[in-house]
Amino acid sequence: MSLKDRTIIITGASSGIGEATAKKLASDGANVVLMARREDKLNTIKDAIEKDGGKALVASGDVTKKKDFENVVSKTVEAFGKVDGLINNAGLMPLSYVQKLKTDEWDKMVDVNIKGVLNGVAAVLPKMIDNKGGDIINISSMAANRYFPGGAVYCATKSAVKMFSEGLRQELAPKYGINVTSIEPGAVATELTDTITDEDIKENMKDMKSMTTLEAEDIANAIHYALSQPARVNINDVYIVPSEQQ
Ligand code: NDP
């Protein structure tokens, strides 16, 4: 099914997977709403989408702030009249070994990776229930399925996102026609590792540099696949990893 005229909010749209997804969905006719904190980046992406004939709205905000999400939903309805989909993509991954006690980074991961997703769902759900349908796509991770070094907290946040997605699906899909998908990527070439401050982790990650990772566009394609199914089809999980990743 084409995404023509479907209105979809994308969090973390200023780079990486969110940016690639916004461009992909807009190229298939969706009205995309770009949410993140770096407004200048969002404006550049909006311009690129419009240059290619797509429709985009910049609605900057911080996913940890409920009020920001409420504003994004209001602006979306004002511009496009409805909300058909939400892609909870914003996230960060400051990996560290637990004994380093980087508790501020743990808090940030919980706030953005978990609470940010909950805030997004709370903001769009009343509209989707009124519309009797919609799509919620949560970007979890391969990290929901297995631990990797320095990822105790990050993996825990992504496991939470995966299980929350399943709970949402069971509560919302049969009753309200709101389909829910958890996307679980392995390594993707983005800015995500920039938030790592633990020098031991940075050192260990050098080994991964030789691996051919996924591109953000590969995840955008998976998201497009889940969104373009007929309403009767719920894609529960997409677990997508680089061929070279063990
Ligand atoms: P990027 O660092 O490129 O993108 C992260 C995005 O999140 C940015 O657009 C950033 O925008 C946004 N963001 C961060 N904090 C907030 C906040 N408080 N409020 C709003 N937006 C915020 O990395 P990716 O594209 O890789 O990451 C996207 C998602 O994919 C994340 O959830 C990540 O965990 C997940 N993922 C990534 C993998 C990878 O290997 N890259 C693998 C598996 C999952 P801004 O700074 O402008 O606010």
Please supply descriptive tags for the structure shown above:
246 residues; alpha/beta; Rossmann fold; seven-stranded parallel sheet; 7 helices; 7 strands; globular; binds NADPH dihydro-nicotinamide-adenine-dinucleotide phosphate
Give a written overview of the molecule.
- It is an enzyme of class 1 (oxidoreductase).
- Keywords: Oxidoreductase.
- Belongs to the short-chain dehydrogenases/reductases (SDR) family.
- Pfam families: adh_short.
- By secondary structure, the chain is an alpha/beta fold.
- The chain is 46% helix and 15% strand.
- It is built from seven helices and seven strands, in the order βαβαβαβαβαβααβ.
- The protein has helices spanning 16-27, 39-51, 66-80, 103-131, 152-176, 199-205, 216-227, and strands spanning 7-11, 31-35, 55-58, 85-88, 134-139, 178-185, 237-240.
- The protein has a seven-stranded parallel sheet, with helices on both faces.
- Strand 2 (31-35), helix 2 (39-51) and strand 3 (55-58) form a beta-alpha-beta unit.
- Helix 3 (66-80) runs parallel beside helix 4 (103-131).
- The mean pLDDT is 97.
- The site of NADPH dihydro-nicotinamide-adenine-dinucleotide phosphate (NDP) has 28 residues, from helix 1.
- Residues 11-12, 14-18, 36-38, 41, 62-64, 89-93, 112, 139, 141, 185, 187-188, 190-192 line the site of NADPH dihydro-nicotinamide-adenine-dinucleotide phosphate.
